[in-house]
Each structure stands twice: as C-alpha cells, then as structure tokens.
Amino acid sequence: MLDSRLFHLIKKEFIQLTRDKRLIGAVIIAPILQLIIFGYVATTDVRDIPTVVLDFNRTSASREFTETFANTGYFSINYYVSNFEEEKALLNSGKVKAAINIPQDFAKDIKAGRSAEVQFVVDGANSNSASIILGYIQGITFDYSMKVLKDRFRNIGNVEDKINIINAKVRVFHNQTLSSTNYMIPGIIAMLLTLITAVLTSISIVKEKEYGTLEQLIVTPVKPYELMVSKMAPYIILSLIDVVLVMLVAVFWFKVPILGSIPLLFALISIFLVTNLGLGLYISTISANMQQTVLSVVFIMIPSMLLSGFIFPIANMPAVIQPITYLIPMRYFLTIVRGIFLKGIGIEYLWKDALLLSLLGGLIFTMAARKFRKKLE
C-alpha cells in the first residue's frame, strides 16, 4: 500500500514537471549554456596582452627584442609610440596592459657586453593579471639574455655548455598543459549542481505552498516522508541527467580529461546531490514565497563559492576564516571532482573527503527532513 502510494506520488510529480516546458528547458539547456559561458570566462590564462612599445633605439637589435615578446603568443604589440605621454594615455585608457621602453643605447650596450636596462610598465589594476604578466616578462627576458650570451661565446671553446650551471628539466605531473580551463571546469560543474539541485527543490515545494496544493496533500493519508521523497525524486533524476550532459560538454567541447574512475565519480556525485537536495528542502521550510527562496539560495551560494576553494585557495584565507570552510559541502566535492578529473586518483586518496561530505550531507538532510516533517505536522 505504502509503496504503491509512493509510486503514484512520484509519478504525479513527474507528470507535473513535464507539463512545465520552461522548467525542463531551464534544467536541461541552462546548465549546458552556463558551463560553456563560464568555461570560457572563468579562466586565469592571460594571452594576447595588448602592449605598447616605446623604442628610442630603433635598431635591428631592439626590433628583435620586441619580436621575441610578440612571438610567444602572450603579448600582442598593438602600438608603437614616440614619447611617454602617448604611452601614459594608452595605459590610462586601458587600451594596453603593458609597455616596453627600450633605451637609446640598447644595441650599443649589448654589443659592448654591458647590461641593457629595459623598462617594463604593467597595468596593476588587476593584481592577478599583473602578476602573471610580470612572470611572463621575467621568463622571456631571461631566455633572451641567455640567447645573447650563447651567441657571444659560441666560438669560444665550449663555453656555451658552461653558461647554465643547472639545467632544469621541468615535468608537470598533473594538468600537463597548465590549462586553467582544466582546473576551472570541474569547479563549475560543482557550482552548477549546487545551484540547480538546491534551487529547483526549494522552488518546487514553495510553489506548492503558494498555490495551496501542499495543504491539500497534508490532509490526505500521505506520510511526510512519502511527500518529501516524491518531491525530490524527479530532481534526482534530472540532476543525474544534467551531470551526464555537462560532463559530455566538459570532455568533448573543452577537452577536459577524466583520468579517474567514472563509476566512482558518479557514486560521489550522488552523495553531493543528496546533500544539495537536503539543502533545497531546508530552504523550502524557511521560505514562505519565491522571493524568500531566491534570496536564501543567493545567501548560501555566495559563501559556498568564496569559501569552498573554487575561486580563492583556502590556504590563502585568514586563519579565522579557514575553519568555517569545513561547513561548506562544495569544499569536499571540489577536491573529489578535481582529483578524479585531473589526477586520476581513487578512493584511497579521496576517502577522507568522501566521508566528511557524507557526514555533512547526512546532517543537512536529517535537519531538513525533521524540519520539513514538523512543518507538515
């Protein structure tokens, strides 16, 4: 009797859900579009940096030096100016992010074996981008300096082999291409799953309150747990469909590798989904209307993004803030999904995060279920 009643309740929810074509579109299409948009926008890679050159030397040596920057693909030489005022105007307007100032004696100093001091000006308004640009400048300048030294001593015995005392052979162990997209896409998947499951679950129940249909269900023989399960079942299925779709986009569109176990990934994703469904259920119990629901979701999502390590490393946060991050489910899931995607590691390395996520998810779901049952009774 109970199983039959629960089955019919779940069936009713699916029928009601399929009638709302806009909701189906939002659930299926919106995550894909959001992943594509965020995948291109949420990147720390800095390329084609608009650059201005102020060349007082104007020799083949100075041209070769600036071409070295342009040939790397990181810098795009868009402007050549003749004085500092023009350069300053371009920097102030934001048309360029970097400037190369080559002194008049550049070629003469290099030919004489003296240090040629080139000035670089970087727009520091965005400190993160400025730090990356400075790293590029230092690396490119060092490589060019070594080239000059090797050219000078090429015909003197075997001096060229003695210029570099240490020959560093660097190997990147994970994310060999150092693509920030490979790092950000798994985090975006976690963010989208949190948003979709929490929002849809809470809105579906609050909508019943606003329409008055929830009260009609309460006076029926339906038990609170049956109503709760029936409300969440469609969104569990839809969330799993979303997981498959966004993973396909991540792998085939953005070429993000999945090096680990896919069954393990889906098993741990299921725990994360239940946690977020419990979160959505809890939001629905404290919200009286749609406006309150949306505000509650925003209030929860912003700390989740900021404190989970999705944007800022947890280790760089103030010591007083770091303990709070243990209350954020996305913190554990980010470690899990990035570990499986990029490192290919298994449960032997992820068991601690999986356990803590399960405990936190169980706590959230239990609190939500009790509050939901109490609200109905």
Overview of the molecule:
The chain is built from 13 helices and four strands. With 377 residues, it is an alpha/beta fold. It folds into two domains: 239 residues, no CATH class; 114 residues, abc type-2 transporter like domain (abc type-2 transporter like fold), CATH 3.40.1710. The chain has a four-stranded mixed beta sheet with strand order 2-1-3-4, with helices on both faces. Helix 3 links the parallel strand 1 and strand 2. Helix 9 crosses helix 10 and helix 12 packs antiparallel against helix 13. The protein is elongated. The mean pLDDT is 81.
Structure in a nutshell:
By secondary structure, the chain is of the alpha/beta class. Helices cover 66% and strands 6% of the residues. It folds into 2 domains: 239 residues, no CATH class; 114 residues, 3-Layer(aba) Sandwich (abc type-2 transporter like fold).
List the helices and strands and how they pair.
Elements: H1 2-19, H2 21-41, E1 49-55, H3 60-71, E2 75-81, H4 84-93, E3 98-102, H5 106-112, E4 119-122, H6 127-152, H7 180-211, H8 213-218, H9 224-252, H10 262-286, H11 290-307, H12 329-343, H13 347-376
Parallel strand pairs: 1-2, 1-3
Antiparallel strand pairs: 3-4
